[in-house]
């Protein structure tokens, strides 16, 4: 700072007041030069409002009105991007087409977004290729391969990087993890472990007696693996019925009517006579 009335003869002294005066900023009372006494962090405080005045050294009276000025801290790239909401978890249906959105990740940078590129972030994927990709500008993660099968692999760990300075050399970076789980769709038909079953049934069994319990396997899970059994063909039509045990998903074959009275033990042979359905298939 310099006053027009200062002739350089030492008759003028300068004083400083306001935000940070004496603690952060000091003034040389002879020259008006202002110095910072410590390192300044724009992210803690971006500007300071100070007041300065020139006084007559002998009378200590102002030689001109007090002036106010602002010291603005210019940003440097000293903060790396951070994923404040990470790590992330997300799910996407198996067999989703390429380009299906999974989740959006967001990194924040404490540097000044209005000055330079210190806070301009681009995203890239460090781990998770070739199954997934990430949009560089938005951070939206998408599927990158078709026909991803939950029954082959149901979970993927991705590592996403955010780099400031628009990804240029010298930029700072931060990472986060994204756990993506493939959710089940009904893409597997139920199948019997054996093609043929045979059971001996005493003729004395009353109606509603359990003859056999059979179970089909389904690689799907949850509602997509819930079974429905039907007898659609064979000698057992009208004689036997089949229902499902909701807890075990087994087919329970029972006697429906007493037309099974024979002189010897009757034989129930189940050979491609069952219609099997799961979760809508």
Please provide a brief summary of the model.
This protein has 281 residues and is an all-beta fold.
How would you describe what is shown here?
A 4-stranded mixed beta sheet has the order 6-12-11-8, with no helix packed on it. It has strands at 12-18, 25-27, 34-36, 47-56, 67-72, 88-93, 101-104, 122-127, 132-134, 140-143, 155-163, 173-183, 196-201, 210-214, 227-231, 240-244, 251-255, 266-271, 274-278. The protein has no helices and 19 strands. The termini are far apart. Residues 260-273 have low confidence and may be disordered. The protein is rod-shaped, with a radius of gyration of 40 Å. It has 281 residues and is an all-beta fold.
Using only C-alpha atoms, the radius of gyration works out to 40 Å
The number of distinct β-strands equals 19
Structural class: mainly beta
Order of helices and strands: EEEEEEEEEEEEEEEEEEE
Distance between the termini: 84 Å
Average residue-wise pLDDT = 89
Helix content: under 10%
Task: State the helix count.
Answer: 0
